[in-house]
TrEMBL record:
UniProt organism field: Mediterraneibacter catenae
Gene Ontology MF term list: 3'-5' DNA helicase activity; ATP binding; ATP hydrolysis activity; DNA binding
Span of domain UvrD-like helicase ATP-binding: 27-306
Gene3D superfamilies xref list: 1.10.10.160, P-loop containing nucleotide triphosphate hydrolases, PCRA, domain 4
SUPFAM superfamilies in UniProt: P-loop containing nucleoside triphosphate hydrolases
Pfam families listed in its UniProt record: UvrD-helicase, UvrD_C
Region Disordered, residue ranges: 524-550, 637-664, 676-710
Name this polypeptide is given: DNA 3'-5' helicase
Primary enzyme class: isomerase
Family: Belongs to the helicase family. UvrD subfamily.
GO biological process terms on file: recombinational repair
Keyword set, alphabetical order: ATP-binding, DNA-binding, Helicase, Hydrolase, Isomerase, Nucleotide-binding
Length: 758
């Protein structure tokens, strides 16, 4: 603390009387925030506790460098982990400095988007085997291409059902020249063939963007002389948001981008590392500190939560000093026991209605859970009570068949070398037309040279009326979705062509690349199906704290999805042993589960309620409170017990408006819905492109099984009684019980006894 304060005092007297230091925004910063903003060390990492104003400091740093130290925005690279975060930073900068032009913030974006721009605009990508016209492929597309190569070359690759994950996890080992793959199969041969095919089709994966970008940056540095000392080359400052979420490939890209010259300023919270499954490690914050010899500052003061919530959060803190608060004690944390999720859903609906009647808006309320499957019961009950809600599950274009097909058409149109995608377009059972091939391959010559275009013109050029089959029952909906998409794309493309003096082909290619990077998502429950959100550079989402601009809906989301958000009132459900935390294989997983719970409870500003079930009904979950609840001091808690729901089982009044609630019937409906979804997931038609080859092979096996009468095997469980075996593998066993529905168990615990076949 004294070092930061002394640094602040020394720095404050040496700067001019004009600039960011003399603005109202700077004066509102606390001493820790000011020290971070004014620090000009070659490398600095800021350990920002939850709710401590991390984004405010990052924006303050940019303004200070630009206004006080005369660093052009063009000489800054600001790296974020989401498109939303990059947009928010730019929009908040414009509120203070409205005259910021788009070309000044070209270096603001995610690691992948910044790498993409550099490969397109300044790096010699041809030296790596691609052309400037390359397109970006998403992970599913790369997996499909890998499956095709495996089949064509007869490669022996194990665990194909996890191929997508293996492509990500073993990539670094291949790059480092390891002799054998993890499972001693043909995985490394697959990487080599996959790389050759991607170059032939002129496509890059997300990993390629960073890897090739890093390699070309290092070559450029060597060619430019000692460590790229030319002041006209590269950024002067690199600022990184959420640095704890970096992976090793991103760190290497950051190092190459720095070139030994640029200064680094990174902010993050090592207590919020919850994405290890995508390559992030819990030590990444400190790895960066030591890699670049960085000075460490802290932001210890939390402005969000009341003292009771922070006192509980400090019990789960793993790194750094205790979180300091600025607010009063507030209400105690409620710990409530429910009989099962069905009873809890009724309770939450009534509780939320009461809060709303007492003046609290729905948007100030959130319900968090560990597993996405837990939302189904809440959705049904909230629908019945008329409670508006927003589900955090993202619906991508792949969930909308006609738009998924249309994007493939556009991808081939701007990259005719993409034979894999061309085959998928023509083979599509719903929309594939042989005549589309010529339209796609002639697009650049026929239409791509234009300098403006309308949605109607593209609809006519591709003959979409015939492709969508006007006589089909879904034609009108498909036409609406397609036109809505094309209108948004044309608006973006026309704007791009006007600013860059380019042609339509280049503009569509840029649009498709950005859509691949950012998923082109629509939020289920928030927007109408097919209402595609704006792409990169086309707008920004509202400031996280300006919740009045959002629809008045209760937020339902997983603990992972809650990161970065805040709500007045938070309910965390299913805090049972085996659910929060989930059963863990090792210490690292256990520590991440603890950080995840920390993230969840620190989203609450004023009210926090934690609940557990006597009868959780989830595989692996135990009907007792999580050990996390025992870690919270008793004086911070207010315990409540809902008891067994005899009243709702008998159909008593629920909701206070005369509606009858039959939870027994609701259980049956939800269980049937889960069963149908499970069956649909196993149907051949629901398989992705990567699984279609396996499906064809499996048809013979399926027919052979259908010729035999299925064997019924009885099982017994000490709690649920006798049931029927549904399925089993080396680790799990699934059984159905008459009164309890389907349940899964770990074989290792020996909970289920298999009886004789009947």
């Amino acid at each position: 603390m004294s070092e930061q304060t002394n640094g602040l005092q020394q720095a404050a007297g040496s700067f001019q009387k004009e600039g960011f230091q003399h603005t109202e925004e700077f004066c509102r910063l606390n001493e820790y925030q000011k020290a971070a903003v004014l620090d000009e060390s070659p490398a600095c990492v800021v350990n920002a506790n939850v709710g401590s104003g991390k984004t405010t400091v990052l924006i303050g740093k940019i303004l200070y460098l630009h206004l006080d130290r005369n660093v052009p925005l063009e000489k800054m690279t600001v790296l974020t982990f989401t498109n939303k975060a990059a947009d928010e930073i730019v929009e908040r900068l414009r509120k203070i400095k409205p005259d910021i032009a788009p070309d000044q913030v070209q270096g603001f974006g995610t690691f992948h988007s910044v790498a993409l721009r550099m490969l397109k605009n300044s790096l010699p990508v041809e030296e790596a085997g691609w052309t400037k016209e390359f397109t970006v492929m998403d992970p599913d597309e790369e997996t499909d291409l890998a499956m095709k190569i495996i089949q064509e070359h007869g490669l022996k690759v194990k665990y194909k059902n996890r191929l997508k994950k293996r492509l990500e996890q073993e990539y670094q080992n291949w790059l480092e020249g390891k002799a054998e793959s993890r499972y001693r199969d043909d995985m490394y041969r697959l990487y080599q063939l996959l790389e050759e095919e991607k170059k032939r089709q002129n496509k890059m994966s997300f990993a390629d963007l960073l890897r090739v970008g890093e390699e070309l940056l290092r070559i450029k540095a060597e060619d430019s002389g000692v460590e790229r000392r030319d002041e006209k080359s590269g950024p002067a400052w690199i600022l990184v948001d959420e640095v704890q979420d970096s992976d090793l490939m991103q760190i290497e890209f950051l190092d190459a981008l720095r070139g030994g010259k640029a200064k680094i300023f990174a902010v993050g919270d090592p207590n919020q590392v919850i994405y290890s499954w995508r390559g992030t490690g819990d030590n990444m914050f400190y790895l960066i500190k030591h890699r670049f010899g960085a000075k460490e500052l802290t932001l210890p003061v939390n402005y969000r939560s009341n003292a009771s919530i922070l006192a509980a959060a400090n019990r789960f803190l793993q790194f750094g000093n205790r979180i300091q608060g600025t607010r009063e004690e507030g209400q105690r944390i409620t710990v409530r026991n429910h009989y099962d999720p069905f009873q809890e859903a009724e309770y939450l609906a009534e509780k939320i209605q009461t809060l709303h009647r007492n003046g609290k808006s729905y948007r100030e309320i959130a319900v968090f859970y560990r597993l996405q499957s837990q939302s189904g019961i809440l959705e049904k009950v909230f629908d019945r009570y008329g409670i508006p809600y927003e589900l955090s599950v993202k619906k991508t274009l792949k969930d909308i068949p006609v738009l998924n097909w249309l994007v493939k058409v556009l991808r081939v149109s701007v990259n005719p070398a993409d034979t894999q995608m061309a085959a998928e377009v023509l083979a599509d059972p719903g929309y594939g037309e042989e005549s589309m091939y010529l339209r796609m391959t002639e697009f650049s010559e026929e239409t791509g040279k234009r300098e403006s275009v309308s949605a109607g013109e593209l609809f006519a050029y591709f003959g979409l009326r015939e492709a969508l089959h006007p006589s089909s029952a879904g034609y009108q909906e498909d036409e609406r979705l397609v036109m809505d998409f094309l209108e948004k794309m044309c608006a973006s493309c026309n704007k791009e062509m006007e600013s860059s003096q380019g042609n339509l082909t280049a503009a569509v290619r840029k649009f498709i690349n950005s859509s691949a990077l950012y998923g082109m998502k629509t939020d289920a429950g928030e927007k109408a199906p097919g209402d595609i959100s704006e792409c990169e550079g086309a707008g920004s989402e509202p400031d996280e704290k300006d919740r009045t601009a959002e629809p008045d809906r209760v937020s339902l989301m997983t603990l992972h999805a809650s990161k970065g958000l805040e709500f007045d009132t938070v309910f965390i459900i299913g805090v049972n042993q085996g659910m929060i935390p989930l059963r863990c294989k090792n210490f690292e997983q256990e520590e991440e589960e603890r950080r995840l719970f920390f993230v969840g409870i620190t989203r609450a500003e004023n009210n926090l309620e934690l609940s557990w079930y006597t009868n959780p009904g989830e595989p692996g979950a135990i009907g007792e409170p999580s050990r996390y609840l025992r870690m919270i001091p008793e004086q911070l808690l207010n315990r409540e017990d809902a008891g067994k729901p005899e009243n709702v089982r008998s159909g008593e009044n629920a909701g206070g408006d005369g509606r009858k609630s039959d939870l027994h019937q609701l259980r049956k409906q939800v269980q049937e819905q889960i069963r149908l979804k499970s069956e649909h997931a196993r149907r051949p038609g629901s398989a992705g492109m990567a699984e279609r080859g396996a499906h064809l092979q499996g048809e013979t096996v399926k027919k052979e099984k259908e010729q035999k009468e299925p064997e019924v095997i009885r099982v017994r469980h000490r709690k649920y009684g006798e049931g029927i075996l549904i399925s089993e593998d080396d680790m799990m066993i699934e059984a159905e019980f008459r009164e309890y529905g389907r349940k899964k168990f770990l074989k290792a615990f020996g909970e289920v006894e298999v009886l004789d076949a009947v």
